[in-house]
Amino acid sequence: MSTEQEIFSPLPLDFYDQPTLQLAPALLGCLLVKETSEGTASGIIVETEAYKGPFDQAAHSFKSRRTKRTEIMFGTSGSTYTYVMHTHCLMNVVSGGVDVPEAVLIRAVEPYSGLSLIHSRRPKAKNERQLTNGPGKLCKALGISMEDYGHRLDQPPLWIASGPDRDKFVTKAGPRVGIDNTGEAKFYPWRFWIQDNRFVSR
DNA sequence: ACACTGATAGACT
DNA sequence: GTCTATCAGTGTC
């Protein structure tokens, strides 16, 4: 059993120096923590998706498209890539190292701490599952926004820690979600989740 | 199952 | 300047 301090202690930046397809499943079971003036909330990462820039038609950085939005993906691993879609914000972890525009999308978490804060931020959730079982929902629940764009994930106010009870789950892989019209890329099994966890988005 | 929402970037004229 | 698509979520049919 880990101590409270170990559970919440930020992972070092070099943790993100591993191949994106290895990092995505490695993030499962880790704790995503956000500190705000309202308090601190956290959730265990239970679902991720890998996006491999230049060769991945589903990625914003396909063919190394370098723009204001994708710029952070060309930077160092372990930075935050936030992106606004419709009315919601989605969070990605930059990987691949400098000049390799890859990232891992955090698709779902299981609420771990700051439950009352999470509930107050997600008044429309009709049950516990709906608090954080989607990429836009978890950002709202934890208070993650465009202000976190470019933030390094080894320090407050936003970081990822090793989390409790590591390795006590089975990892599954399958096709990614919400990426129609992307040809072959649609079928790559680059989505990873914790088997039987009820907060997985689908 | 379906449509409405509506921020922002990127492509195009 | 204008048009369109987007790594969703929600309410309604």
From TrEMBL:
This is Putative 3-methyladenine DNA glycosylase. Gene3D superfamilies: Methylpurine-DNA glycosylase (MPG). GO terms for molecular function: hydrolase activity, acting on glycosyl bonds. Signal peptide: none annotated. InterPro entries: Formyl_transferase-like_C_sf, MPG, MPG_sf. Belongs to the DNA glycosylase MPG family. Keywords: DNA damage, DNA repair, Glycosidase, Hydrolase. PANTHER family: DNA-3-METHYLADENINE GLYCOSYLASE (PTHR10429:SF0). The lineage of its organism: Bacteria, Bacillati, Bacillota, Bacilli, Bacillales. Its EC number is 3.2.2.-. It is an enzyme of class 3 (hydrolase).
